Every structure is written in C-alpha cells, then in structure tokens.
Structure prediction request, 295 residues.
Amino acid sequence: MRILLPTDGSDYSKTAAGYVRDLGLRQGDELYVLHALKDFLLPDEVDPARDFIKAGQQGARRMLSEFTAENLHGMAGVKTIVREGEPWREISEAVAELKADLVVMGHRGLGLVSEYIIGGTTRKVVRHAGVSCLVVRNPMPHGRPVRALYCADGSVSAGHAREILEALPYPAGSEVDVLSVVDMDITTMPERYYPGEDISRMMAELREHYRAKAQKVVDSECAMLGKRFGKVTGQIRFGAPDDEIIKAAGELGADLVVMGCREMKGLADVIVGSESMRVLRHISANALIASGPGS
Prediction:
C-alpha cells in the first residue's frame, strides 16, 4: 500500500503521523510525507522574491526532516516531498502522480476554530482527490482492541472501504461492528398516517423485504471480515443513513468509522454535501472514507 501523509507541522498532522507510526506498515508498504508550500503573492517591487521562495523551500525541507524524526521515528524508508501551491490541490496532484492508495491526514491544520470542525484542506482532499482518506482525530488506542464501525450497503464503494480496512495492519484482536441502514421513509412513518389494514400489512411486508435484504449484506460482510478480525458483529437500523451512522458511532464508542464515498454531483453536492461528509462533520471518531473504484 502506498500512503501519503500531508503535514503542515500542526498538532493535528502530528496526531495523524503518530497514528501511522503506531499502526505500523507491512513489508512493501510505502510512506510519503508531503508539505505544500503555499504560494504567496509578492508585490512586483519586492526585489528579493527569489530569495524569499528559496528560504521557504529550505524551511519546508527542514520542517519535514524534523517532523519525520520526531513523529515517525523507527520507520524505515519514509520519503519526503515538498510542493508549491494550494495545499489541497498539491495533495490531490501528488496522489495522482504517486498512485497513492490512501491519504492519512489530521482533521484540521493550523488555525483552530473548533475541536470537531473539519478543516478546509481536509474537506477538499476528501471530496476531490479521488483517493481513500483516513481522517485522524484521535491517537491509536493502547491497551485495548480497536473498535471499528463499518457501514455496509452492498455498494462497490462500501466494498472498497472494507478492503482497505482489511489491508491496514490493525491488531488481529480489533473489533468490527457491521452496520446496514435501511433508508426507506415509508417504513418509518407512523401507521396512523396510513389507516387501514391493507396499508399496514403492505408497510410491514416492505419493511421486512428491505430488512431481509440488509441482513444478507450484513451476513456476507461479517463472514468476510471474520477471516481478518477477532470479533465481528452486525446490526440493522431504519432511518436516514447519516443520522443512524452518527448515533451508532457514539453508542458503540467507535474509534474508527469506515464507509464508502458516493458523492453527489453538481450543485447539490455544494449545498448539501455527500452523506460521508455529513458523517465526517458530526462524529468524534477517526474516519476512513473510501473513494476510488465504484465511487
């Protein structure tokens, strides 16, 4: 697996680096640490512009050297990259050039607004880079198994999320809860809105049909994940997927929420945001948002 770890030197990127270090890499995995040196608009009359840029590059390389020594000590074969430009765009271009499989980054960069707000760079990379992203808020848990909530809906993107979860070197004793949410408004409407025996019976049949369909997905995913993880359980919920995922993550005390990314296209994506982005904004856990094949 080829992993890209962007950093701006903030505590958030240090937490992400510590997560990668504690997770460890397998033989053949590659880790690239990237810093994007943001462009500064300098007035024409400033003569030493070239010296300013040169000093910035030197500072960026020094920062990366110190960052890797401090936060990725003991990890062999770590490569560093300095790029110039808008950070989220440079990260996205580096993903394409390196053919990275995963971006690991903190949920914010420099400039704290709120503990749980997702920073602009992180949000844009998740949405536009076309690669799976592990957004890190919290360090790896120590002294207990990792608890992951995997959101399964039978889609290709969700299957890709499961493959990445299986490929990452989490301890064998880690626990996974497979969640499938039945998103069908009619099955959750109070029956008093639909008087009559026939309507009630049809609603019950529809609910059971979609519950059984979701159960097949859960059973299949549990069987596959059971080959990799020590404890795998499953559950089905009815309701709005993002709401139910957020609630389940809190109730389970999940360390990691894993889901596929099915972005909405056009203006709707700007106004509403994808389901995965809404979940990302409202959970306190780390999040693995899979993008790529089928997304």
About this structure: Residues 110-116, 264-273 have pLDDT under 50 and may be disordered. The first helix runs from residue 11 to 23. The beta strands are 2-6, 30-37, 78-84, 102-106, 132-136, 147-151, 175-182, 231-238, 256-260, 286-290. DSSP finds ten helices and ten strands in the chain.
